[in-house]
Known about the structure:
Layout (H helix, E strand, L loop, with lengths): L4 H9 L3 H9 L6 H14 L3 H22 L5 H9 L6 H12 L2 H28 L2 H18 L2 H10 L1
Helix pairs in contact: 1-3, 2-3, 5-7, 6-7, 7-8
Amino acid sequence: MLPDKNDLAKRYAAFSNDRLLDILYHKEDYTSEALEAVQAEINTRNIGVDELETFTVEKKVSNIIREQNALVPLSLGAKLLFFFAWFIPVAPFTFHRNYLEDGYTTKLWQTRFFRIAGFVSLMVSVLLSVWLGLGDAGLFGLLAVLFGVAYSLDPKKRTRAEAEG
């Protein structure tokens, strides 16, 4: 059951100005009753046009920053870390959580890709090394070659090429 106007008015009275303005900024996500209650609360608080404009500009800047963060790729060192140290239980998940919170979607995709590629590469390298009798040097050589293959198939490089094409 949807709350009535009085319930909405009570709820919105406890919201901060920024939260009320955020509701107006995302008005497509709310019912007309909710928007009316928010507008009434904004009128009660005498929130002016200046504050509304400042909020809108800050939101737009925030969106631009988020869009730019989404395109930032992993560094070579991070790719090496996720490829070769996928088995460390805490580190990859910590980075993953930070990338998620900060909106680094390209880094998230690359993190997943290099962790999976590292795991698969290790399994393939071990199997080939045992089957062909290559020893430790052969195992590490295969891992290095497979990292090169994974690096050439990097998801960021494909999306950049698609954008240019």
